[in-house]
Design brief:
There is one protein chain. The protein is an all-alpha fold. Helix content is 67%, strand content 0%. The protein has nine helices and no strands. It has helices spanning 15-35, 41-48, 52-58, 62-84, 90-105, 111-118, 127-146, 156-171, 179-188. The chain is elongated. It starts with 14 loop residues before the first helix and ends in a 5-residue tail after the last helix. The model is unreliable at 1-9 (pLDDT under 50).
């Protein structure tokens, strides 16, 4: 008997499994927003009305849960990058997009640290967030460089680490809501050609 190399078609989730998944995701969003991405997974499961085993069946680790929570914001950031790809001012488009990433990272305490640590770990579930963001940012950066507005030696990896660092710094100073935009402006003056 020949073995098939075609991937198996995933079975559709049962209605109760789908409800559990949705409740876990909703509670994770709420907990991550209130307590940061280090929120207790046991507490998330309890608030969703399921056991911790059910959480782990849906999300094998914290990064998998974080990845699922961030998919909506990721889609929004990717859509915004497509809109900005045709902007008349490529450097302004890049700056606006980087600012949007920092704003998103500010919604969940700890997300910047997690994305920074996952940036070099291709086995992390957060790679599903960081890779598309890097690709989208690379296109915006290339346009700004081609227009002569950004130095050629600047890489998207540098910019992504920089935005995460700015978001992390802002997270540590919640009483200064202008810190992240101020740091971004200050930093980006060094990018100019």
């Amino acid at each position: 008997m020949a073995s098939s190399t075609a991937p198996a078609t995933p079975r559709p989730q049962r209605a109760d499994a789908r409800r559990n998944y949705d409740r876990l995701l909703s509670q994770a969003r709420r907990s991550f927003s209130e307590h940061g991405t280090d929120a207790s997974l046991e507490d998330i499961a309890r608030r969703a009305g399921v056991g911790i085993g059910t959480l782990y069946r849906h999300f094998p680790n914290r990064h998998a849960l974080m990845n699922a929570v961030f998919q909506e914001a990721l889609a929004s950031l990717l859509e915004r990058s497509r809109e900005l790809a045709e902007a008349a001012e490529p450097c302004g488009a890049l700056v606006e997009w980087l600012g949007a990433i920092i704003t998103h990272a500010g919604e969940y305490r700890g997300v910047s640290r997690a994305l920074m640590s996952a940036s070099h770990d291709t086995s992390s579930a957060l790679t599903q967030c960081s890779v598309p963001l890097r690709e989208a940012g690379a296109r915006l950066l290339a346009r700004a460089q081609e227009a002569g507005h950004v130095r050629v030696g600047v890489s998207i990896d540098d910019l992504m680490q920089l935005t995460n660092a700015i978001a992390l710094a802002a997270e540590q100073s919640p009483k200064d809501p202008e810190l992240a935009p101020r740091l971004l402006r200050l930093t980006l003056t060094g990018l100019r050609a």
